[in-house]
Amino acid sequence: MAPIVPFSEPPYLAGLPSPYYNESHLRWQKACRAFLDENLNKHAMDWERDEKVPEHVFRKFAETNMLIPSLPAPLPVEWLKKLGIDDILGVVKVEQWDYIHTLIYCDEMSRCGLAGPPGSLTTGMAFGVPPILKFGSRQLQEQFLPELLLGKKRMCIAITEPEAGSDVANIQTTAEKTVDGQHYIVNGTKKWITNGLWSSYATMAVRTSGPGPTGLSLLLVPLLGAPGVTMRPLKVTGNRSSGTTFIELDEVRVPVQNLIGEEGQGMKYIMTNFNHERLTIAIGVTRQARVALGAAFQYVMQREAFDKTLIDQPVVRHRLAKAGALLESQWAWIESFAFQMTKLKKNEADVELGGLTALVKAQAGMVLDECARCAVLLFGGNGLTSTGRGELVERAWLLRLQSRLTDLILGIYRDVPSARVPGGSEDVLLDLAVRQLVKNFNKKTKMLEQPRGSSKL
């Protein structure tokens, strides 16, 4: 086994033992990496620069069932087998898939170092489809799941609005029933919607009754080509190729059969969906931090200044050590999360891990900030330029091509805000995490309380 640059790979891939990964997981990691090196990593930086991943790439992922792993584990085996999907890349049976496989997939998808290209492919499947699987009626599932799971149509999750970001309970987009009760008429706006531009449908949060969380519902809303729907791209700091979209809805007619679950239960469905979203974001963001720090480590072992390599400077080693400690602690926490997800039932995980999932996502953004900043400082002037050593043009060093040292320091640094805001902004998640932990503690304490009254000995 060739030496691995420190911090550039998770410990289990650097030759260290781990209790989490079995033979199925290791086979999957190898097959997944080979596929992504060929079909994503080679051109990811070019696509991010162009602000668009070509349509043929999405088709390739769909045809090989490489969008399916973005769904929450366990996978919807009944539906997949019904559609003729028995395995992923021929190495993992869909019924054997667990959250460690998901962990590997999300980690490998972010190995290109950028959030935009992988996000352009998987966000709709990862976060838009699960509410239909979990809460949609059989009729709704029969109508839409075949084309969505097979990648014949694309979708997105549309929650955020110009005046309601992390404050989901104050969403203003309305869905009012027609007099005959056959349609909802949807009016409002959605902003910062990933994948919206090319989505045929959106799993959309709408207000079907009064104010507050109890007035929210989820509705499957048609987008591309639908009367009354206007979409335009948004320029954002990072994730430039992920199709961030502003959506305007003007008297959009949606069949009442497109209601996902029950009216008034939207907030509950959204919060359940957030747990998978936040954990997968945390996994990907942590890999981005690893790419940045690994590139910086390799650079300082080669770069000379003041008659010695940078790694011989104590201050450089100190900076790498601080960032590396944060990175590996974060990864160890994520691995334990994934393992716990393989042992807990969905409803148990939602309660026990909901607050902690918010926390691990928030911390992932902090770790990325530290590692990306460390890399920029250690690269010096090269970290401030948008070409050559300051940008990842091709995945040369990760593909063991030693002809050129490349990185995506600026690309990763641009992605830092995109890691700390979507899925719930950092401060909101930190507060949510503690409130949820307190809520669980008080509930368990109350259950242990003895009935009031006197006792006789």
Any overview of this molecule?
- The protein is of the alpha+beta class.
- Helix content is about 50%, strand content about 15%.
- It is built from 13 helices and 12 strands.
- The protein has helices at about 25-40, 45-50, 55-65, 75-80, 100-110, 115-130, 130-135, 140-150, 265-300, 315-345, 345-380, 410-420, 425-450, and strands spanning about 85-90, 90-95, 155-160, 175, 185-195, 200-205, 215-220, 230-235, 245-255, 260, 305, 310.
- The strands form 4 sheets. A 4-stranded mixed beta sheet has the order 3-6-7-10.
- β1 (about 85-90) and β2 form a beta hairpin.
- α5 crosses α9 (about 265-300) and α10 (about 315-345) runs antiparallel to α11 (about 345-380).
- The chain is globular and about 80 Å long.
Strand content: 5-15%
Radius of gyration: 23 Å
**Low confidence ranges:** 389-407
Strand count, sense and barrel status of the largest sheet are:
4 strands, mixed
SS content category = alpha+beta
| Average pLDDT taken over every residue | 89
SSE arrangement, N to C: HHHHEEHHHHEEEEEEEEHEEHHHH
The percent of residues in helical segments reads 40-55%
Give the termini separation: 70 Å
* Distinct helical segment count: 13
Shape: globular
